[in-house]
Design goal:
The structure holds 3 protein chains of 3 kinds. By secondary structure, chain A is mainly α. Chain A is built from 9 helices and no strands. Chain A is elongated. In chain C, α1 runs antiparallel to α3 and α3 packs antiparallel against α4. Chain C is an alpha+beta fold. Chain C contains 5 helices and 21 strands. Chain C is extended, with a radius of gyration of 29 Å. The chains are: A mainly alpha, B mainly alpha, C alpha+beta. Chains B and C meet through α3, α7, α8, α9 and α10 of B and α3, α4, β7 and β9 of C.
Chain lengths: 214, 550, 378
């Protein structure tokens, strides 16, 4: 606890605590976002748990020609053609960097840098979504095609939904940044959004490694 | 008294409907939670009466098996997700910011959002009755029974309703943790937090870690049912045990979500009415954290008979979780020893919690012994066990809290005579309903059966249980009458009717918006006690607290 | 005033409890004791139950005793004007009441683990291998030879499931494999003190040995995992015979199955009939019956006496389950035919075995109070 906290003992202003934390350190919205992301991690842990359970009980994985036929087995073999997904990984990881550049900019009160960084991040995010939609259209199998199809589309689909959510948050941040609502002192929303965006990025890296490489 | 009242004692909030719908005040949201949860409690109670009416005698009298299955499914789901969990969250919503000297929750608008998802989820679930039948697979919703081939639209509504309610819980947990970490008054260190706040903290961690896994399971079930997925149905390559694993990974910690805050309430109430501090404060904190941690490693004890889990590990963990629970029990009893016990209604319900929760803990040990569980699993023994924990524990604890904080919430005390009548009827009815279920389970009566043979020898005990069930229902009448009566004409409570210990009693009843004008100095976990007995009880205090009084 | 110290109190309580135990507490309250076990494994579980029960009862009496004592002894009296001593805790007692429960649960864990190992132990060569097939809402049993192939086969060489009753030799080790083609069920015989889930896609197997002295006895069993609308009626019987009687019985089944093309459901209340089997020849008489809006379209049917007939049952209720049961005399009388429950829209051809002339009731067992009609057989 800070020294100023002590001084507030008799003059404690309760209303001030609502809008702003008096105890220094991490702010309420950012702590809230970190906790929320903890719950998101557990959500994906549930989906990954299901994926690995199914995978462990299916031999070989992905299901081979004996199980699903020659054509489907070839489509299931994502390891053979991970290039589009790898490109998408590069797009998303780059967007994480540009997002962080925006954060560093606004921490120095550089509002133009913030707008620039967020705009690039948003474009990369949308690019990722378009790329994933294209990928889906080329895969040749669907959600109903066995446990492989179900787990693949559930995992990537929920990740995609999170990217979509992130781009919506980024759009709001971009709009507010262009309206000049953020400053070095006041940009909790930007920090919270960037933490979320990094999280979405990390989930994708985990997904890419599990589905395309391992 | 150094505390000053900003406003005179005012009757309950009189603000309009619009204010209640749009409020972000944690106190109003807390009351909304409590009222909403009690409504669902009465609805789910009626469903239980339906179950007991049907089982009172062999043969089908009132409800055909398809309707009967909906009754107990909705009874379980509603009691757990729309009554016990949210009413405890409601009390926490009201009390935690007050106890830590905060003006409100950290994220007030998210707080309002968390609440409003509850009635929405509940209504969705109940619309199942109008779409050809509500969910009927038991509250555990085991696949493949919960798959499209065996169940109707009601199960989809159940699924979506639970996703909403789960999201409400998660957002609530985020809010509680942020509030407790960030909004404590100066001087209120972690080891001076009231035990209730500690239990809410640990509960919130459990919700944060476990509920999302349940949400993922519900979403996978929804994909299976509606989009042709293959997660849980072995007929199409899925895994039926997978559902049970993800379901119980949440639903066992959920038991602690349902019981820890009730333990916290009892830990607030017993010291106040014994005129002593809580015995072993730190042991309590560690035991709470220990229960929370162990709570994540016992889920498969619900699955001993599936033949698909590693039995010794989960058996050991289940036995071990009895240790911190026992530590709490002994500390509560030590709190009573050498005290001056006052048997006001909150204290009676707290003692009811102690005596009944003890049985729920002991009969749980039977199921931890795996071979004994082979005999008892999925029989009425389990129904008895879970009700001794969740009714004997959580519901008694909840009523203790309700009688205790009602004066803070409304400015008026509940009537003691009616309160005692409520307690006595409920205590008798509860034991009459659930104790015979031990015997029914041992005698081989499986749970979730709509009917049983007249030759099975279960008729008398079932009749007894049904009489008990209606006695519990009757005990709600003096309670409701008491609330109606006391809201209008109850004795004015004043700031601190119980001579309590914690900060919520340092402000008016009900508290003004943003709660406090001035806070007393906080130098222990009992700031109000210190204030009341500054100097007088000096010698009685341990040295570590003594130097702070000037 | 005489002050009882907690330690003295504890010893008094403990003595009382020990005295109670010595006088056979468990047998004094038979309601809190499981049925007398009839299998070797059940005896082990029963013995473990004894240990757990004794410890649980002791803890119950001691702790509730402390609570009641505290409530009576430390109630506030009018003379109490000063605060009681403000004791905040005591590390020594915290350690004591952490260690003692730990020791108790460790002991319970060890004994239950030991029992688990004997209960779960499987024999190298069990004398009999049975497969229990649990389907909504009936049980049937197949008998396997040492080579894992079915012993009781029809003329076409296909395994024949014997419905409703499992016959086992007393005193011999029986291996039971559990199989479900639909949802999860649980094999539960209260007198075995044992149950095991029947999980589709996951075969569970265990051994049991019925006591030799229990030959000639019949034990009631029931599905213990909710499986739908017929769950409460999904029961079976376990019949223990002497090994010699069992061998005779099994030979009988083998010969009978070979001779008869399609074994008719046993005469007494069958827990389930195989429903429509497409290979069987159509019966001379076929009745139509439709369920719509949770009601039958007919309230009376007629059928010829002493010859098989069909019921062509149509369920027109989207998503709702119906079936047709035939009861003797009244809707609550003995079940003489139990049709498969189907979810609408769907159709089944029920093949009903010959019935003697008389009055019967046909009932949907999902809606037994509302869907009722009269069947006259003459």
């Amino acid at each position: 606890m800070t020294a100023s906290g002590h001084a507030l003992t008799t003059e404690h202003s309760p209303v001030a605590g609502l809008a702003h934390d008096t105890r220094g350190g991490i702010s309420n919205p950012i702590l809230g976002m970190l906790l929320f992301i903890t719950s998101e991690v557990m959500f994906f842990a549930g989906l990954f748990g299901a994926y690995f359970t199914v995978r462990a009980s299916t031999n070989p994985w992905p299901p081979g020609p004996e199980q699903v036929g020659e054509g489907m087995a070839e489509k299931f073999n994502l390891h053979a053609d991970p290039y589009l997904a790898a490109l998408l990984t590069v797009v998303l990881v780059t967007s994480s960097f540009t997002c962080q550049l925006a954060i560093w900019a606004i921490r120095k009160n550089d509002r133009r840098g913030l707008v620039r960084g967020i705009a690039v991040t948003l474009i990369l995010g949308i690019l990722f979504l378009i790329g994933q939609a294209y990928d889906y259209s080329q895969l040749g199998f669907g959600l109903t095609d066995g446990t492989f199809g179900t787990t693949f589309f559930t995992l990537t689909g929920f990740h995609g939904a999170h990217v979509l959510g992130g781009t919506i948050m980024l759009s709001v941040i971009l709009y507010r940044a262009m309206a000049g609502q953020f400053s070095a002192r006041h940009h909790d929303a930007v920090e919270a959004t960037s933490i979320y965006w990094h999280f979405v990025d990390v989930v994708w890296i985990a997904l890419f490694s599990t589905l395309y490489i391992l | 008294m150094a505390t000053t009242a900003l406003h005179p004692a005012v009757p309950a909030y009189r603000s309009g409907l619009y204010e209640w719908i749009t409020t972000t005040d944690h106190k109003k949201i807390g009351i909304l939670y409590v009222v909403n949860s009690l409504l669902f409690f009465f609805i789910a109670g009626l469903l239980a009466l339906g179950v007991r009416a049907e089982l009172a005698q062999p043969k089908v009298q009132f409800f055909a098996p398809d309707v009967y299955n909906q009754l107990f499914t909705m009874h379980g789901t509603v009691m757990i997700f729309l009554f016990i969990i949210p009413i405890l969250a409601g009390f926490a919503n009201y009390v935690v910011p007050l106890q830590i000297g905060a003006p409100d929750m950290a994220l007030p608008r998210i707080n309002a959002l968390s609440f409003w998802m509850l009635p929405l989820g509940g209504i969705l679930m109940f619309t199942g009755f109008a779409t050809g039948g509500a969910a009927a697979e038991g509250w555990t919703g085991y696949s493949p029974l919960a798959q499209r081939a065996y169940s109707g639209t009601g199960t989809d509504l159940w699924d979506v309703g639970l996703v909403l309610i789960g999201t409400s819980s998660i957002l609530g947990a985020v809010n509680f943790l942020t509030t407790i970490f960030k909004m404590r008054a100066p001087g209120l260190t972690m080891f001076r937090l009231p035990i209730l706040v500690w239990t809410v903290l640990v509960t919130s961690v459990l919700v944060l870690m476990a509920t999302p896994v349940f949400t993922s399971a519900l979403i996978m079930l929804f994909i299976d049912r509606n989009y042709g997925g293959h997660f849980f149905d072995p007929a199409t390559g899925g895994n039926a045990i997978l559902w049970q694993n993800v379901f119980w990974f949440y639903s066992h910690p959920a038991v602690y979500v349902m019981v820890l805050p009730a333990m916290g309430m009892v830990s607030e109430i017993l010291p106040v009415f014994s005129r002593k501090p809580l015995f072993g404060y730190k042991a309590f904190v560690f035991a709470t954290a220990g229960i929370g941690a162990l709570g994540f490693s016992v889920w498969a004890h619900h699955m001993f008979t599936t033949g698909a889990v590693f039995l010794p590990f989960f058996s050991l963990m289940t036995f071990l979780i009895a240790v911190p629970t026992g530590v709490k029990m002994f500390n509560w009893i030590a709190t009573l020893f050498r005290g001056q016990l006052i048997f006001a209604t909150p204290m009676l319900f707290a003692l009811g919690f102690l005596t009944m929760f003890l049985i729920g803990g002991i009969n749980g040990a039977f199921s931890a012994a795996v071979p004994v569980d082979f005999a008892l699993h999925d029989t009425y023994w389990v129904v008895a066990h879970l009700h001794y924990v969740l009714f004997g524990g959580s519901v008694f604890g909840m009523f203790a809290g309700l009688y205790y904080w009602f004066p803070k919430m409304t400015g008026r005390l509940l009537n003691e005579a009616l309160g005692k009548l409520h307690f006595v009827l409920m205590f008798i009815g509860f034991n009459l309903t659930f104790f015979p279920m031990h015997m029914l389970g041992l005698a081989g009566m499986p749970r979730r059966v709509a009917d049983y043979s007249a030759n099975a020898g279960w008729s008398d005990l079932n009749l007894l249980a049904s009489i008990g069930g209606f006695t519990i229902a009757a005990s709600m009448l003096p309670f409701l009458w008491n609330v109606m009566l006391s809201l209008r004409n109850g004795e004015i409570a004043g700031d601190d009717p119980w001579e309590a210990n914690t900060l919520e009693w340092a402000t008016t009843s009900p508290p003004p918006p943003y709660n406090f004008d001035h806070l007393p100095e906080i130098r222990s976990e009992r700031p109000l006690f210190d204030l009341r007995h500054a100097g007088a009880a000096h010698s009685a205090l341990p040295a570590k607290y003594a130097e702070t009084h000037s | 005033m005489f002050r009882t110290t907690p330690t003295r109190l504890a010893s008094v309580l403990a003595l009382t409890v020990v005295a109670l135990m010595a006088s056979g507490c468990a047998s004094m309250i038979p309601g809190l004791y499981p049925p007398t076990p009839v299998t070797a494994q059940g005896h082990d579980i029963g013995n473990l139950y004894d240990i757990v029960f004794l410890i649980a009862a002791a803890i119950f009496f001691v702790v509730e005793g402390f609570i009641i004592y505290a409530v009576i002894r430390y109630r506030r009296r009018p003379t109490d004007t000063e605060l009681p001593p403000q004791i905040h805790g005591n590390n020594l007692v915290e350690i004591i009441w952490t260690v003692i429960p730990t020791v108790i649960v460790a002991y319970l864990f060890v004994v239950s683990w030991q029992t688990l190992n004997t209960v779960e132990a499987t024999s190298q060569n069990p004398q009999v291998h049975v497969v229990a097939i649990a389907r909504r809402f009936s049980w049937s049993f197949e008998y396997l030879g040492p080579d894992g192939k079915s012993l009781v086969n029809g003329p076409d060489g296909k395994a024949v499931e014997l419905p409703g009753t499992m016959v086992v030799p007393a005193g011999q080790t029986v291996r039971l494999s559990l199989h479900s083609p639909d949802v999860i069920h649980a094999f539960y015989v209260p007198q075995f003190l044992f149950k095991r889930d029947v999980v589709p896609g996951h075969e569970n197997t265990f051994d049991f040995t019925v006591d030799a002295t229990d030959a000639g006895q019949t034990f009631r069993g029931q599905c213990a995992e909710l499986c739908g609308v017929g769950h409460q009626g999904m029961s079976f019987e376990v019949q223990a015979k002497t090994p010699a009687e069992f061998d005779t019985w099994l030979q009988q089944q083998i010969t009978q199955a070979k001779a008869v093309p399609s074994p008719p459901p046993s005469g007494k209340a069958p827990s389930g009939s195989p429903g429509a089997s497409p290979s069987a020849p159509p019966a001379a008489v076929s009745l139509d019956l439709t369920a719509k809006n949770v009601a039958f379209d007919k309230t009376s049917l007629e059928a010829p006496a002493n010859q098989p007939f069909d019921i062509k049952f149509t369920n027109d209720d989207q998503g709702t389950q119906h079936n047709v049961d035939i009861h003797k005399d009244s809707p609550t009388g003995q079940v003489v035919f139990d049709g498969e429950v189907i979810t609408g829209p769907d159709t089944r051809l029920y093949q009903v075995t010959p019935l003697p002339a008389g009055t019967y009731a046909f009932v949907c067992k999902v809606h037994p109070t509302t869907m009722i009609g009269t069947l006259t057989v003459k």
